[in-house]
Every structure is written in C-alpha cells, then in structure tokens.
Amino acid sequence: MAPDGPEPELVARARTGDRGAFAALYHEHYRLVYSFLLVRTRNRHLAEDLTQEAFTRALRRIDAFTWQGTAFAAWLTTIAKNLYLDELAHGRTRLETPVAEFDDPPESWRDTEALALRELEAVEAHETVRTALHTLNAHQRHCVELRFLDELTAQETALAMGRSVGAVKTLTYRALRKLRRPTGAVSA
C-alpha cells in the first residue's frame, strides 16, 4: 500500500511514462543516493557515476516498483547498494595508497612502523564497531549504519527506512543506549 503524500502520485505518473514525474523523484532523492554511495566509495566521481546509473536503472525498472511497506527511497538505495557491490565484485574500484617515487629519499622506518600501527588500529576499531553493531537488533543496526556510517540526517534515514523521523530518533536513542551499556549488563 502506498503512503500518503505527493510521492506515490509521482511514482504512479512515472510508471506511466511521465518523464517530468521521474525528474521530480530524481531531484527529491539524488542527494540521498549520492551521499549513500559517496560514503562507501570515498570517490566523488565514482559516486556520481554510480548515482546516475542507479537512477537510470530505476527509470528502466520503474514499472516493476510496488509499494511493499518501504519508501521509494529505500528502493533507490537498494539499487545503489547493488551497483556498489557489483563495482567491488568486479574489482573496478581499488583503493589507492600513494607511495614515494623511486628517486625520493627513503623515509625513516619509524614512519613506516607508525603507518602500520595506525592501519592495525583502524582494523581493530572496525572490528570493534562491527562486533558492537551485532549486539543490536536488525532495525537498530540499520538505523545506526545509515545515521553514523553513511552520515545521513534523521530525515534522510527516515526516508530510506520508510519510517517517521520520530521512529528513527527513537531507534537511534535505544541503539546508542544499548551500545553504551557495559558488556554483560542486565537491562531493567
């Protein structure tokens, strides 16, 4: 069942081939999809390319979209996520680390050791966050990932999750409260 508001009307019109309606949906959701991809790719140009491809696919498949209890933005985000995963799977996206030129004087080993320690700390921090996120239920985890890892606003998160802003704030509060609780603590 479609939610109330102008979006269902725009989707319905876009499904009948109304390019203006799809353009309005594009303008409404571009920032959300782009931000979602930018956080993951860390590459502005790649995020722009994938965002355009996400909307191209959405346009081609708009007639397949049905309201299933989630917002149109969630459908777009799923398309973007799948494009990003395809990009990773095909190895087209590579994180590049700048290295010194051959004729540069060698840096001290201490700098190399410090870099290695920073990378190890980053990996350990990533594992700690992943472990902590798995203590949350699926809705709380998704909410926290969108809010803090994808850096979406409460409004953007609500749109992506098909929930109200108040529900997103409540999910965020409860998730953070649960994450702050010492391991093994019993809730009252």
Automatic annotation (TrEMBL):
It comes from the Bacteria. GO terms for molecular function: DNA binding; sigma factor activity. Keywords: DNA-binding, Sigma factor, Transcription, Transcription regulation. GO terms for biological process: DNA-templated transcription initiation. Coiled coil: none annotated. CDD domains: Sigma70_r4 (cd06171). The keyword S-adenosyl-L-methionine does not apply. Residues 25-90, 132-180 form the RNA polymerase sigma-70 region domain. PANTHER family: RNA POLYMERASE ECF-TYPE SIGMA FACTO, RNA POLYMERASE SIGMA-70 FACTOR. Belongs to the sigma-70 factor family. ECF subfamily. This is Sigma-70 family RNA polymerase sigma factor. It comes from Streptomyces cyaneochromogenes.
